[in-house]
Amino acid sequence: MATPIPSNQCEFTLAEVVEATGGTLVRATSTVGAGGGVRGVSIDTRSIGAGAIFVAIRGAVSDGHDYLPQAAARGAAAAIVATGRRHPALDCIEVADTLAALGRLARHHLVRTRAARPLPLIAIGGAVGKTTTKELTAAAARALFGATLSTPGNLNNLIGVPMTIFTLTGEHRAAVLECGTNTRGEIPKLAQIVEPDVAMVLNVDLEHSEGLGTLEDIANEEAALFSTAGRYAVASADEPMVLARIPKHLKRITFGKSPDADVRLVSRSVGVRSRIRVEIASAMLAAGVEAFIDTEIALLGEAAALNCTAAIAGVAAMHPMPLESRELTAIGDALAAVKPVAGRLANTSIHGIFVIDDTYNSNPRSIRAALAAAREVADGLGARLVIALGDMLELGELSAGAHQAAIRDVMRSHPAAFVAVGPEMNSACAAVSRDADTTGVLAAPDSIAAAGIIAGLLRPGDVLLVKGSRGIAMERVLERLG
């Protein structure tokens, strides 16, 4: 389910690359690299185009420097390499850190583009809901501004964000960039690259705590997205840990259910499609504009409705003027057209089973949101609820407690059947059974075994929720059903 890196035709002179990256140019010893510029930035020699610049990134599995001969053979004009690792057939810009250089080059492209014309830009971070909120915000931005650059899929890290920025062209009139992290220091680096007009942090909760640390550490990491914002901070009115970390110089717009929220979810009908009413603070509206957006969305659960409030707050902060009635209508229509993101509370029917596919990833907050959405759907359809829940990964020392809490959350949703998948979930079931009724809970060592168990449990008309961290591959359950 990894998102492919998009190709680009971004143009630089070699002098620009040297200045942007702070590197040293070493000219090629042959005529292959004799040009004065490059067209396209690539980190993959399998898809690199002639005349492009290749950035040699050292990853966990492979080292891009090992592929410099292939880059030269495919017609690359130049390469960004670590000091001392140049290739004689390529113009090489030597730098201390090629990943950092990739980010600096992307920042240079973003700065020069924004210097040429207005380009309102929002960066979106948080523990849960980033991708769905990004899709909603991008849809609303297109309705207000026109062509909008948006992060493809889950390309929200120190490679994905720069490679997305390189696809920015003269056609774009706004940008919506998702910023994620699984280790300390990643968000500050992304913030330096993006320097958004508006920074949105949705929430703080246990996520990647193996690499990020405590809840306080996670809050500090996520809130670093505010550090380079130019105008606005957007945050949930119901997230005190986020609100407390907004720099004082930034204007703030809040969203959520709280009566104090600037963009407030007033009401929501429950169903496969939900009718929502959102109230917007008068200060964000032109004179005489009715302060409500009423629309129907195709996304499940209350969390998705709150993501809509976040998207409205985000585009309002991006917009240079108070919103007019026609703009509110356009935003509502745009939100209504957004479909669920694959693997994130996406729903489908498989042989008469209403399937909720939340297999992309998992953490405690997203489990609670998924359980609430699934219970709502089952109740609305008068159906049995069946749950297959896999391990949450990368929680470190907090993992055991988080998995036990997840088991209790599942049992409170009163499923007709529950399959716990993976060693962490199985251990948590054993621990919880000492003080809670876990009768009927079935254990599976992995998603392959779970697929067989689930297939034998289901009846036509059931609602099935399938969820787990990416490494557990819970989509195997769905593949077995299909």
How is this fold's topology laid out?
Layout: E1 11-13, H1 14-21, E2 24-26, E3 37-39, E4 41-42, E5 53-55, H2 68-73, E6 78-82, E7 91-95, H3 98-116, E8 121-125, H4 130-145, E9 148-150, H5 160-165, E10 174-178, H6 186-194, E11 198-201, H7 209-212, H8 215-223, E12 232-236, H9 240-243, E13 251-256, E14 263-268, E15 274-280, E16 292-297, H10 301-318, H11 325-337, E17 346-350, E18 353-358, H12 364-381, E19 385-390, H13 399-412, E20 417-421, H14 423-432, E21 441-444, H15 447-457, E22 463-467, H16 475-481
Parallel strand pairs: 4-5, 5-6, 6-7, 8-10, 8-11, 9-10, 11-12, 12-13, 13-14, 18-22, 19-20, 19-22, 20-21
Antiparallel strand pairs: 1-3, 2-7, 14-15, 15-16, 17-18
Helix pairs in contact: 3-6, 4-10, 4-11, 12-13, 13-14, 15-16
Query: What's the CATH H-level homologous superfamily of the largest domain?
Result: Mur-like, catalytic domain
**Domains (count):** 3
Q: Per CATH, which architecture of the largest domain?
A: 3-Layer(aba) Sandwich
The CA-CA distance between the termini, in Å, is 17 Å
**Structural class given helices, strands, pairing?**
alpha/beta
Q: Give the number of DSSP strands.
A: 22
CATH level 1 name of the largest domain: Alpha Beta
Strand percent estimate: 15-25%
Nearest-integer average pLDDT: 94
Arrangement of strands in the largest sheet: 9-10-8-11-12-13-14-15-16
